[in-house]
Amino acid sequence: MLLLEEQEKGDQEEQNRASSEDKSMFDDNHRKKTRTMLDYYSNLQDYYTEEEGNDRIIKRKKSRVLAASVATITAVADSQSEEKEKTAKPGGNPGSGQHRRLWVKDRSKAWWDECNRPDYPEEEFKKWFRMSRQTFDTICEELNSAIAKEDTTLRTAIPVRQRVAVCIWRLATGEPLRLVSKRFGLGISTCHKLVLEVCTAIRSVLMPKYLQWPDGDSLRKVKEDFESASGIPNVVGSMYTTHIPIIAPKVSVAAYFNKRHTERNQKTSYSITVQGVVDPNGVFTDVCIGWPGSMPDDQVLEKSALHQRASGGLLKGVWIVGGSGYPLMDWVLVPYTQQHLTWTQHAFNEKIGEIQRVAKDAFARLKGRWSCLQKRTEVKLQDLPVVLGACCVLHNICEMKNEEMHPELTFDLVDDEMIPEIPLRSTNSLKARDSIAHNLLHHGLAGTAFL
């Protein structure tokens, strides 16, 4: 028993000694982990403290840059004010205080600067802009009040001549806006905006002056010129309808689908119509723009303001000559379209064709001079009437100024004419047409080419 007690006591002491060693080892590990964690948190705190310091430094730098920018802008504004004050005094140099805004992309304007020089060759200028420099200057002067902009603190306004040049170049060449942008050293969106602004100004400022219905002495002169050329009295205009190709619209696609052009060209075509009346010199006196390309000529005529004026009696006693796509009316004179024509009817058709060719040739020059009308354009459908109206006004200005077209710009005009479902709208006009045909034949004024 004594031996067993001694052995149990020894085991108990051994166990206590092992436990104390384990405890001391655990305490040492705990102290090491605690010391490691404290070191980690201390380093982390130092990192965040350093980052906060960097943020403060960055903020101070930003504040300094902002203050410098404000100082620069203020200096520019003060400099411009001083320069403007100098220009107001005798001997001041106008325009010396202009500065570009700080964020404008630097683009080259070398091409336009070259064209704008007074010693630039006249033939080259006329080739690019379809008109002489004198005519171009006249247009700029008349549009100046409508399109001129003033310089601001951060931006120099685009000059009127450059604004007009961008628009006319775009209409004349039909170049994409990205190429126009590079040529004139302006942004693409700026060029698009300039084209619409100048076209709107042309329609509002120049159209009332250069595209108007003749009256008084001018109307008498038109009648005399047409009668001397054809022998047909009381003709006040030659009428024609052409189609302008467009990109398929997002709405009412079927209305703008041009079946005749699609069948002829073997390519899906969409278009809008332009109906115009011209005088003996090929100058437009009335235009109707924008009706869908699926409409035949007679329906476009019925929708036009010209038809409304005629219905009100403003065209009583006069004739507008049209092709076979128009109906015979009290004021619209068209050729005979039935089969087996008599000599008298053939001779009449030949003279009517001569008058009608005046309008067709005018439209051929219109499309030849303004190449943007020959292909599908980037202009939105709702903006097209403004652009097309501007083209007609510019055509009239060129015709009135006797601006000759370059032979390379000749355009072959092709438009399909469809005989209306109701070709005769007035029995009185039928009798009047027969009377005109007989008078032409008996007075030796009828055509003879058909023989």
From TrEMBL:
InterPro entries linked to this entry: HARBI1-like, HARBI1_dom
- Annotated region Disordered: the residues are 1-32, 76-100
Q: Does the keyword Nucleus apply?
A: yes
Among its keywords, does the record have Nuclease?
A: yes
Question: Got a GO cellular component term for this one?
Answer: nucleus
- What range(s) does the DDE Tnp4 domain occupy? 240-396
Cofactor(s) required, per the database record: a divalent metal cation
Biased composition, Basic and acidic residues: where in the chain? 1-30
Cell compartment(s), UniProt: Nucleus
Kindly name one Pfam family recorded for this protein: DDE_Tnp_4
Any single GO molecular-function term of the entry would be: metal ion binding
This protein's UniProt keywords: Hydrolase, Metal-binding, Nuclease, Nucleus
Record family assignment:
Belongs to the HARBI1 family.
- The name this protein goes by in its record: DDE Tnp4 domain-containing protein
Give the organism the record lists.
Acer yangbiense
